[in-house]
Amino acid sequence: MTERGWGRAIQIASDSAIVTPAEMIHYGVSKTALLAVSRGFAKEAAGTGVTVNSVIAGPTHTAGVEDFVYQLVDKSLPWDEAQREFMVKHRPQSLIQRLIEPEEIANMVTYLASPLASATTGGALRVDGGYVDSILP
After folding, report:
1. CA 72 – CA 28 distance, rounded (Å)
2. Residue 70 is among the residues annotated as catalytic for this protein
3. Which CATH number applies to 1-59+100-132: 1.10.443.10, 3.90.226.10, 3.40.50.1100, 3.40.50.720?
4. Cβ count within 10 A of residue 93
């Protein structure tokens, strides 16, 4: 990429890099390290036309998360109600009060991978639905 003078390196991190759950310390530490490595690579690529960024994904709707949600709420609830109850009880700091859809994270990745993001590098950009209670990453 550096030889061609153009490229994009995009890492998918997690809100756990910033808000590390007590039951997932190992995961949070690995995601925090990913942010540091990404920033270091961005510095290494300075001036080459290659950008390096991380996407901090918030609570995201996946099959595994659905299973997790149904461990914490009434299994007989329809998905929309189960998701709402989970967010209110277990993720109340989310400003959108729902899980993020994978496509919403993909939208950020699409931007970062495009020529439109030529001045966006070394960043940790959040797609977290306001879950991280900070104005900075």
Report:
1. 21
2. no
3. 3.40.50.720
4. 15
Q: List the domain boundaries for the chain.
A: 1-59+100-132, 61-99
Q: Which residues of 14-33 are buried (b: 16+ CB within 10 A; e: fewer)?
A: bbbbbbbeeeeeeebeebbe
Residue 10 host element (H or E):
strand 7-14
Walk along the chain (137 residues) and give the pLDDT tens digit of each residue: 999 999 999 999 999 999 998 888 999 999 999 999 999 999 999 999 999 999 999 999 999 999 999 999 999 999 999 999 999 999 999 999 999 999 999 999 999 999 999 999 999 999 999 999 988 76
d(CA 15, CA 32): 9
